[in-house]
């Protein structure tokens, strides 16, 4: 993403303008030169020449090294690449390699056991081809009257766990659909079987056919399309007049490479194959000390899980970890002005590796733009009629991914009051399954079209926040709104109205594993206990606001409960460790979630260490999401459903940090006593005029 | 609001264009002709000529009468006014009058006991004048060094309950502040006493001085201002470049009087002195049956309460009911383009009565506009690179009120997926109180500036939804997301991943009084059990999504717990009755909340009847809001904090109701296998170009 950037202005139609630069910031993603360089260095050190690059990505500098550089007390960190390579076909061997690109040396090469890395687009591609040509698949399609195999499509999915095989094979499952014409909506025609493939050996391991009372389920021939070529004649363009959003003087942010400066906020925008967007070094200008203050060291979405709630096989194997199993970076859309975003946009391209160690570019992978955000503040003095108001502004840094059927749009937003908000919009297509005439969808799904079952599911995201509230040593304090402890009528609470925020510092990792509580409107303050706000005399803090955190509904000891342990809690707080990023493990594919894995530790292992998290360098994993009971309205394509989490300043600034924002026109005398009299007069004038 | 309307287009500066019309719809607010007509008819029937009009407002037709008219089976309802009049000074007598404006007759005149109606702006105005001139007040101001009484200001508040007086007097409390110059922020200089006034007798009943260890608290002389004349030199206009939002072809909605037609939605926009905005007859075009379907009969915010959490007197008396005690309509701001809203705006004026029975106009009381709302839906087919997306649109009908220090902006919004959302933005000024040097603000408040305490408080709103989901007979079904009842390993739940929505119909009013549950992500489906969705075979429904519902923190038996009983539950469901609107009573000022009041029934009385609410005409009261622990960032003026509640279609339409929205440009081949190869090529070309 460093390498290529492009400006686009609403309404303008300037030709794409590329500018190629060498990474200038230690957190810049690997460039188009660095990826093949790393690949070559790795090849030179490999035992085999049958090497598949699962990833080649920036190996971020250790925090101590980076912060020394940032504070001008240490040298510029060397550029390093981290790569996972797979060798061998039948029993793939997985190795982790760290390459120093500055010194052009392989610094470490570690062979691992019992792990399976992320499925790349290349990996997923294999499944459809081999499934479509498999004689068993052809036969069971024929059984339900399908003879043209070019109309059968297979969505390749991570498999979760299939007890029939273990780590000796790299597995996928494939969910089949039928298309009656080229652009037909396949999710209207799900088929009643599933396929398990070995992607390295490129073979079908099993074709699992579901029979209900011994019968196959016919494929639905009803069409439910949404593309313009099918439904364009029912469009009603006359109903919606255009809304034009422009910035005639250009955007309010400035970029220097991947660093952005906007309205007092500064940060670095990174990108990698797995997390997609990574925001680092987030800091804000404090107008009351004329200084820059650190807020967050690093923010990214490090995991998510989508467990399906239908207990019948094979649906128990559907619980995609879209970050860990597929990679949010790999699945990134190339964005387009007017479709994905409106207004004056700056796009950034992403640079990703291929399986053969080359660089590839996703144009317009990241969108950066501003939006008007309504009222920032307003007050009317009812006496003198003085009205003051100012308008808020949003900086939005966004990315959209396609995970087979589903789409996730990630909007990292900052507003002028100092708030960070991650909003995710969920859209795309429901995963569907055919209903046999003897079946009904309820209670584990909804019949969204005749004979089409869309099953209950959840989306639980994990936002990793590495805070640095006014410095590296922070404490999370749980805050519960509770009534006064004193009874009604007591001296301390005579009228019974007393209530307060009960504050509980989280002291160890086990205490830091905690859940939201609605009854107390629980929030969590990320505080710096060493910095008191000079006004409130409370530690400066940012508050985690997270009431959109659907609890994991799978039962303890279910497969997904074990594999997605991170989703059991609304919040985990842990001490910071370099390279500890992924709460479901670095290797999520086929993972069991069992604690104590030598090469695949998860958030349970980190929590079991039960180290101190008070007044030290900490990391927060914030889980949020929704439970989705499909509706007919979600078919054939889902209206976007938003879900969000916020980090909001709480006694961080001495006062409203947005007082520098010029007020909108100040209006006088619209609400005063005099104005009231005038309103009566004008009503009377109008009445008289009518007589 | 019927009487006067005005168009304004962004960027344009057309002169105001008034058009005067006679109410043409039975739900139109009283016009500038009807208010004085009603007043005259009332005067002719009054015993005394010392009559004060507390309100003169539309007496809405009975539902049966109105729906008969609407369905062309009954005649047009007569126009009627409802008025509350106050006679006498020492012991004010309150009467309710209904006037038939069509037949020009007073139809009913009822004298009430033990009730106190809403405080009008006239009522509130009295307090500051008499307090400022009272010798006791002058003396206690002098004690803390204040001699210029023109610099002392009094915010008049409803009093809640003060045990020293009852219904024999119409009471207010006044909270005093000091201003060091004309436009100085008074909330930076709160004073340490409060005043109780009798507004009818126009006298001070008590001056309550707080002494801490026998000492007065000095007034803070620190200034904390926010108006441009004080802080304009620290504005940084260069940081934010303009964002222009225009609709060159005009807006997408059409209005006929107070009826609006937008993107398939139709409704009537009403307004009155108490609720402010009232949306009625909300219906939607169903593209799949080419018919109009009823959604909601009437939606409005019927109450709110703001209990403060500091147990020390006099703060227990601060729990404003801004709708019932002050009137959202009466406190409405006159709005301005570019300050309150951006884009192409249609404003509506409001017509309100004065104490002497005249009509007065608030210009631009209601703002109607559209906004781009980001992605409506998107899907990329990863095989063929087909991308489809469409953009969502919002219709926003809004109103902003000033309640002394606080501002509330109400945004009633509709989006293309059929969703109704009420978003409220809270802004304005914190209520403040001086800290004595021996005191600290914690735990019941925050020191937001040196010596200035801003106390914990809540804002709990009551949204009244009179649903008519495909007809008048509806049932609310509680929906809880729960794991399967079967254990892991059982035949019905072998892998433990099963979960479903447990549905519990609410059958009686007592069952209908229910709370949100986070653990089950509780929602409530307003269903029509008589209309099954032909696809899902489930009753058609709209779902109440309300997880922003801060529980009332005042203890049982506290004053506010009794007076604001409505705030004890997230949801109440009751059978519909004409004129049953206000859950804290029609007369909230000085109310005790005791059950069984002959003229002031509350939601407790309605619930105690425990009538059936299944498959009948029902009304839902949805409580939502926030608990506010003030932050230094909220001073001297608060950044807007949003809170919202939603009603979302759930198996109401047969499929996505927004497929008529034209897709944005369809993009091909950006995500396909071919495109991926191209990305590699383009990276290589770039690299070659650099060599």
From TrEMBL, chains A, B:
The keyword Manganese applies. Topaquinone (TPQ) is generated by copper-dependent autoxidation of a specific tyrosyl residue. Contains 1 topaquinone per subunit. Belongs to the copper/topaquinone oxidase family. It comes from the Eukaryota. This is Amine oxidase. It comes from Aspergillus ruber (strain CBS 135680). Pfam families: Cu_amine_oxid, Cu_amine_oxidN2, Cu_amine_oxidN3.
